[in-house]
Amino acid sequence: MSLDSKCPTGPIEDRWEKHKFDMKLVNPANKRKFNIIVVGTGLAGGSAAATLAELGYNVKSFCIQDSPRRAHSIAAQGGINAAKNYPNDGDSVYRLFYDTVKGGDFRSRESNVYRLAQVSNNIIDQCVAQGVPFAREYGGLLTNRSFGGAQVSRTFYARGQTGQQLLIGAYSAMMRQVDLGKIKLFPRREMLDLVTVDGKARGITVRNLVTGEIESHAADAVLLCTGGYGNLYYLSTNAMNSNATAAWRCHKKGAYFANPCYTQIHPTCIPVSGDYQSKLTLMSESLRNDGRVWVPKDKDDKRAPNDIPDEERDYYLERVYPSFGNLAPRDVSSRQAKYRVDEGKGVGATGVAVYLDFRDAIKRVGKEAISAKYGNLFQMYQKITDENPYEVPMKIYPAVHYTMGGLWVDYNLQSTVPGLHVLGEANFSDHGANRLGASALMQGLADGYFVIPYTLGHYLGSHKLEKVSVDDEAFKTSKEDCVQKLQSLLDINGSTTVDEFHRRLGKIMWEYCGMSRNKEGLEKALKEIPALREEFYKDVKVTGQANFKNAELEKAGRVADFLELGELFAKDALTREESCGGHFRSEFQTEDGEATRDDKDFCFASAWEHKGGDWELHKEELDFEYVKLTTRSYK
Amino acid sequence: MFDEKLTILMTNQAQSNIKLMCIGKLSCIIEYELKENKMNRKYLASTIGRKQLIGVAGLGLSLFILTHMLGNLLLFLGDGGEAYNRYAHALTSNKLIYVAEAGLLFIFCAHIVFATYTTFKNRQARPVKYKKVAKGEKKTSWAHKTMMHQGIIILIFVVFHLITFKYGTFYSVSYNGETMRDLYNLVVEVFQSPYYVAFYVFTVLLLGLHVGHGLASSIKTLGFNDPKYNLKIERLGQAYAFLVTAGFAAQPIYIYIFK
Amino acid sequence: MSDKNLDLHLKVWKQDGPKAEGHFIDYEAKSVSTDMSFLEMLDVVNEDLISTGKEPIEFDHDCREGICGTCSLVINGEPHGPQKATTTCQLHMRTFDNGDTIYIEPFRAKAFPVIKDLVVDRSAFDRIIQSGGYISVATGNAPDAHAVPVEKAKSDDAFMSAACIGCGACVAACKNASASLFTAAKISHLAAFPQGQPERTLRAQRMVAQMDEEQFGACTNTGACSAACPKEISLENIARMNREYLKSNI
């Protein structure tokens, strides 16, 4: 199958407008005849469900949480970008587009990114109208900040809880439709399978997490808004229940998986404190504006940080990147931290951390000023670590934060399975090989509020969809498969817990597919992951039964899928013989350790087709008509 | 009532089609009226409406006890109870007293009935209790938790109080030829019993606690809560409660010791 | 970081289903690191249980950074445990002493039926929001974000109310299992904005009616909800709701 991105042509400014006109419409009276399934209730899923219901479609909304309001979009702290140019500092739709393509290290689709930048402004309008309490000036107008090294202030924010406030906005819009009877909610349901009829996505099979019942749901189209797969690493900043199962099962039903190896690793997280660690906590990157990152010069230096004099400290970011210093980009500073730890200079009880020191900043501007800026972050840090960052340097270490890869979609957000649309972090489209700060929220809401309402209508209007029912063979087979798979996990009755397997997988991923990868390591991963998978199916211990609430069984299914996704990840990373964005191959770097992209051979998106036990690579060539291919430098 | 209207309508209108039309219209009206009614009914059926009524009634009762206490201060005049008796006589001989008593009884009953009902509903809202009770900053104060118990003791007291005084022994006294009830005599007699004095003082202290908490809480229930004034309101409520309590408690103690 | 280890006695509420009888079961948590979070301590206990073939303890949790509102638990009688402004997932074991006995119970309210063990059904909150916790604005209908300025103080107030994570600790803490703080926070949040004005009366009416219908108790201004609230939502919100409701009836 050839990959047709279905991108419109012509001047980039007009493409989306033109496409909107070219697409088919569903007349208002007919919309109520269509049933749509939306899986996931984060920013993408929540906004899509609400908007489609407003248009008149019948929506069924599914989530694994007990309430749609708890989807992991809620944890986003920083903010949301938009090209409003309210601060009058030279921003524009074109500049946001340009920055996003460049930030994505030239591995995204220009048309998609431009559309994203275009609708960004509507998102802010919509959210304000919903009552999202964005930060304001005394004049009553919205205020912006600069974020993630952007040279313009285009980030809208609500303290450190922007994701929460935006999600509550989408959730409330959704609940209004629930009240009107246009959305039916299915919380505590986990999607286990995609049901296709005549090659089209026509429904899903889910497990009711309370009763354990396997349910079938039929529809005219399925929207997958299930987030990223960062938990593949076991430890990440993702929520405990974030998983790739829904996306992976779709992949196995024919949806191509694109660019799995693009992972964003965030440099400022609270380090692991012990084996029991269940997840990592992110701390805003803004800390690097005032904090200085260092490790002791001598790797055997076990003195308390405050006892180490300046001349015996290695402020390595300032040393290696004199012009950017501590503000070097996320991937660069993450890698540098890893190098220090690999050299044995890591600090703390585990030796897997570096210092982020505010001593000099406090001396320069005073404790009050620092507290005003970072008070809540310092408080959070102290709550978790029991150390006072005003007195002793913080310890930080990078952690997996976001996955740019996901199911392959065309310009209409449709996957390679007709009728299956993928939105938000679950798709691969807009961020290329790396995502800019404050762009994830923008993409989720753009997809849900302003893209899918048009493109879904086009799909429904241009396909003849026969009536299907959950009593059809396809639904029954899918249901039986799911029941069997769950039972087989329970039947193994081995001796190792699900979490233990997950931890071991995470270690392999972090070691060989983490911040820095190389051929040898990836090949090792490609041996170790299948071996671990084999062991999993022999020795995993899942307690309880399938027909009751059973958290262990839920986890087991997810880890089983991670054990397959991990392999594809390593395969993709091995195939991509270049360094770009969130994918750094140590073989492909300049003498000063800068990533070397190979635009001649790798200027494509890798879309993997599932073929039984193996995968076939399809390439979507990427054209850059507007943003010229350049190499970044932070020296 | 609406059923009646419907029946009348049905018998009066012979032609079924007209009837149907009318029923349609009427049901619209009924629905509307019901909706309007429901709004009002809803107010007192709602937790907030009930609480606001309890609060307003409580505020009214607080005013009453203040006037009651101030009237009683006449006991201290040292005139052998003449002023006190004349005051009581003036109150009871006024025809308006029946209206006032009815009003007071109504407020009192409303306060009790709604508070009891609310407490009952509140208990139902948590059928299984916690094994452990919070003790740190997250605990609920003792005064808050026992509002109902305080209320019950106060109610018992009020009943005794009425039996003892309002419906107690009738002594007569004449001042300048005017004969009236010698309530003073009864009061002095009753407060010779240390048990009664103790019971009286204890309940009055409880009343102070109940009022002190209730005042501040009622203000919040009625919709006023501003950190700038909260402490002041709380203090004011406590001062008010203290004043009333002290005024009431002083009487039996004074009489027990000096009379 | 401290490297102290604790031995703890846990008394955990176990209940097979909504209709089943529940009871406390004793567990021993040995050498618990003080750097663990409360939920990590339960993870370790659970892993031990699973390896010995026993059923683990079911509890709700997700983001583990104090924002999603999924985790619950009443720890020694206190929702989210003894620390102020902290969710259970952010509570660390250093708050406890060696040899402590810890009672772990679910959030208890008629409106929050137990699903299993420590997991409760909080969908009543969704229904309260559904009844009016929104501003009716369909996608695409919004005017420019700067069309209506909002006084900064009001916007900040609205944020404080909007910070609610819907965890239900207010209900769990209240002696009457009242959902007033939750409902009031949403009513206050939306009433503070010019955009929220058109539906103000109806919102107060409908949300209060729904709150009552779910069989939560009445507010008696004890302040326990606010004290237990991980986001420290103020009691002022409830007075505001009372005012809004009173006004909506006049």
Beta content of chain A comes to: 15-25%
Helical content of chain B stands at over 70%
- What is the end-to-end distance of chain A? 43 Å
- Low-confidence spans of chain A: pLDDT under 50, at least 5 residues? none
Number of strands of chain B: 2
Spatial shape of chain A = globular
Question: What key attributes describe this structure?
Answer:
heterotrimer, A: 635 residues, alpha/beta, Flavocytochrome C3, Chain A, domain 1, Methane Monooxygenase Hydroxylase, Chain G, domain 1, five-stranded antiparallel beta sheet, 17 helices, 37% helix, C: alpha+beta, Ubiquitin-like (UB roll), Fumarate Reductase Iron-sulfur Protein, Chain B, domain 2, 2 domains, five-stranded mixed beta sheet, two-stranded antiparallel ribbon, 8 helices
3D structure, described in words:
The complex is a heterotrimer of chains A (635), B (259) and C (250). Chain A is 37% helix and 16% strand. Chain A has 635 residues and is of the alpha/beta class. In chain A, the strands form 6 sheets. Chain A has a 5-stranded parallel beta sheet. A 5-stranded antiparallel beta sheet of chain A has the order 11-15-14-12-13. In chain A, strand 20 and strand 21 (614-621) form a beta hairpin. The model of chain A has no long low-confidence stretch (mean pLDDT 95). Chain B has 259 residues and is mainly alpha-helical. Chain B has one domain (46-122, 144-258): 3 helical TM bundles of succinate and fumarate reductases, CATH 1.20.1300. In chain B, 77% of the residues lie in helices and 3% in strands. Chain B has helices at 2-12, 16-45, 47-72, 82-93, 96-124, 142-145, 147-166, 183-190, 194-221, 227-258, and strands at residues 172-175, 178-181. A two-stranded antiparallel ribbon of chain B has the order 1-2. In chain B, strand 1 and strand 2 (178-181) form a beta hairpin. The relative contact order of chain B is 0.11. Mean pLDDT of chain B is 86; it is low at 1-40. By secondary structure, chain C is of the alpha+beta class. Chain C has 2 domains: 5-115, Beta-grasp domain (Ubiquitin-like (UB roll), Roll), CATH 3.10.20; 122-249, Fumarate Reductase Iron-sulfur Protein, Chain B, domain 2. Chain C is 33% helix and 14% strand. Chain C has helices at residues 38-51, 123-130, 152-162, 169-173, 180-191, 200-213, 224-228, 236-249, and strands at 5-14, 23-33, 74-75, 78-79, 101-105, 114-116, 119-120. In chain C, a hairpin with a 2-residue loop joins strand 6 (114-116) and strand 7. Chain C is elongated and about 60 Å long. The N and C termini of chain C lie far apart (58 Å). At the B-C interface, helix 2, helix 3, helix 5 and helix 9 of B face strand 4, helix 6, helix 7 and helix 8 of C.
